[in-house]
Amino acid sequence: MPRLTNGWFFKAESFFSVARHLDQAALDVHAPPPDFLSHSHGEGFLRFFEVRCSRQGIYIFDEPESALSPSRQIEFLKLLRQHRPALAHPTSRGQVRLASANWRDAPVIEANHLGTDHDLNAIVKAIETARELGRQSAFDQMREVEVVPGPHAASRQDMIDLARTASASFGHAVGTAKIGADADAVVDSNLRVHGLRGLRVADASVMPSIISGPGTNAPSYMIGGRAAELIKAAI
Fold first, then answer.
1. What values do phi and psi take at 175, rounded to 5?
2. Mean pLDDT for each 10-residue chunk of the chain (235 residues)?
3. 21 flagged as catalytic
4. What pTM does this model have?
């Protein structure tokens, strides 16, 4: 993890690797390990910083706070020094295609991120707004230096390049087997695959469009619960 003046900067997926090494190091010297890995994603992050790091100048790219209770989320968010613009309703559409007639072959997934001018313009505007927010005097006591894209980035093309090279998915892909009766629909209102008997789909892929909420997890549970009711009723 590179050191940044009074802070740390790393991707969140590095946490488990770091925590594992710290836990093992403690075991090697016969000391009680902090056992960060026993915590949830968010709780592990918070405990890691409470035990090993200063609370000043911590830079993280992830959403570990989602695994914390509301009160602990507030504590965790006090650690963060970042703004993360995001597209909640992208207009770009990707696709999932069969790679071959062999079902063992992995499918071809084309995400097509920022595939429309609307999405590109929206995220560039969001980046510019986030940078402007970060420069406000209210953050003078906690801000050190802009890490990404950095003070050297000034033009719109710089923002476009950042959006094209540094964007990442939330992992909330939906709609590859959407519900409906039109030519693009895969399942009917009972989640049964059109043209096949005995097969249903019950996950986020049946959503016709992305939801507005914070994630697709809870709606997927609801879809699964509804599928269970439909299957039981058909027996």
1. 85, 5
2. 43 63 74 68 66 53 58 60 75 90 93 93 90 82 76 91 84 87 92 94 92 80 95 91
3. no
4. 0.61
